[in-house]
Recover the amino acids of this structure.
């Protein structure tokens, strides 16, 4: 099929992390059919190229980036490649995420759920922020979950070293997505870059399949017919990325494409500021900013 050059997203470039399957691929497909130029990331090259072929078969234009976003060096390499290859980024969809029943650590020796679900989008967004601002008006869309309502940021045990529960780690990471989104929105004028988070619904994907809980193994086969399809799950991400009336709407949480109030904890600005600082320290942004300030002072 010939590339789509018209539509409500024509001329806009959208980067979707975790775009090789599930909600991410459905989000990319939906936005491609609206005329957007897509860029997708995935861990596995073959799977990511397969998703790109589907997008192209539907008439979409797509760039492929391969990176394991649980690794900070991979996030930084991805950001460098994106900045080299994409002259503009109109929308960043922080979609990548997962659930692990048992505790795993990343190459950076951080707890996997926190590293992939929160620190990866935190670092990638910050690394791409200048390009987003230069592409303004631009949007940052972060896929959270209704699980944020059950989340609590345990600053004394962020990495689950003392006590680990897959559900607790996941809920914390999804609350962190919302706290980060609201903090980012407060730091940026809506006329430049908006930041919103969302609950996609409970969707039929491979979510949690690498390391499922026992109850998940038992229940998912029975629940599968009642779960949303990936396309249905992607609807709110697509809405936040494309709806004209959301161009200056920022710092909000959405479900079923409608604004919703998130948990009380998600509006705690002191916790959000503390989480931002801790996250910046963990990904090495703080030291870089300090060096930048020193360099400016020397000039």
């Amino acid at each position: 099929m010939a590339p789509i050059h018209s539509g409500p997203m024509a001329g806009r470039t959208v980067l979707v992390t975790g775009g090789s399957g599930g909600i991410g691929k459905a989000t990319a497909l939906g936005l491609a059919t609206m005329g957007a130029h897509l860029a997708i990331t995935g861990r596995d090259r073959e799977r990511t190229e397969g998703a790109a072929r589907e997008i192209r078969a539907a008439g979409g234009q797509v760039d492929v980036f391969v990176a394991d976003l649980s690794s900070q060096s991979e996030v930084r390499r991805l950001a460098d490649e994106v900045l080299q290859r994409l002259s503009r980024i109109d929308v960043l969809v922080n979609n990548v995420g997962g659930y692990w029943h048992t505790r795993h650590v990343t190459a950076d020796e951080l707890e996997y759920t926190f590293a992939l679900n929160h620190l990866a989008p935190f670092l990638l967004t910050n690394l791409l922020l200048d390009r987003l601002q230069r592409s303004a008006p631009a949007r940052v869309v972060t896929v959270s979950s209704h699980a944020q309502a059950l989340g609590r940021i345990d600053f004394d045990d962020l990495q689950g070293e003392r006590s680990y529960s897959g559900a607790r780690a996941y809920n914390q990471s999804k609350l962190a997505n919302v706290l980060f989104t609201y903090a980012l929105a407060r730091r940026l004028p809506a006329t430049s870059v908006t930041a919103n988070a969302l609950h996609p619904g409970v969707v039929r994907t491979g979510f949690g399949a690498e390391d499922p809980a026992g109850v998940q193994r038992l229940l998912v086969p029975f629940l599968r017919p009642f779960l949303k399809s990936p396309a249905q799950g992607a609807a709110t991400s697509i809405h936040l990325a494309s709806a004209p009336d959301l161009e200056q709407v920022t710092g909000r949480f959405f479900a079923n494409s409608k604004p919703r109030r998130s948990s009380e904890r998600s509006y705690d600005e002191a916790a959000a500021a503390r989480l931002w600082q801790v996250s910046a320290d963990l990904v090495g942004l703080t030291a870089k900013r300090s060096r930048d300030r020193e360099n400016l002072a020397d000039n």
Observations:
- The chain has nine helices and eight strands.
- The CA atoms of residues 155 and 275 lie 8 Å apart.
